[in-house]
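Lab manual, section 2.4: Encoding a predicted structure.

Procedure: take the sequence of the chain (66 residues), apply the prediction step described in section 2.3, and record the output as structure tokens. A sample record is shown.
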Amino acid sequence: MDKLKQTMTDKGCVGSVEFSDADGVLFGKVQGVRSLISYEGETREALQADFRKAIDAYLELCQEKS
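Recorded output:
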């Protein structure tokens, strides 16, 4: 099995990658922002997709507020 990267990046945002033994899922949160932006997935591909979706939603919310 190849080594799992500990972070992901998208649109300048960095997110953590962790594994929950209890739930059997990958999860993470975006680093360096005040808001809690979390994501999860059962596979790396699903985790990456949910990460990108969370980033897009956060950036859209930021645009609406400014």
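Check your result against the sample. DSSP finds one helix and five strands in the chain.
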